[in-house]
Amino acid sequence: MSVAFNGIENLVVTFQAGTVAVGSPAAMSANNTVHNASGGVVPVGIVRNQRNDHAAVQVKGYAELEYSGSTAPSLGWNSLVADGSGGLRVASTGETGRACLVVSLNTANKTMGLFL
Question: Rounded to whole angstroms, how far apart are CA atoms 12 and 64?
Fold first, then answer.
């Protein structure tokens, strides 16, 4: 039997967009507007598509992303923030992160599967 999480409770919404990169975390930058999330910022979701001055952002559901930092996320619930390089990292002491359920880790490639 195979395990598959894609499509479970995915929610993608359209925002106005500043500079965004598809596949990277996004953060709010103004009313109804997102941009690439800088390091230490709580992401609102993952940019799935960008066209003209709009971005489709996944705010809920399963996603796969790179992680960075000296501490890998653990399986289970983690408090995560954007790393500023298109991935996520574990929130440091004093940072407010987004609670995400990490269900798979690939430490060789530094990627994780998680529920937003």
Answer: 15
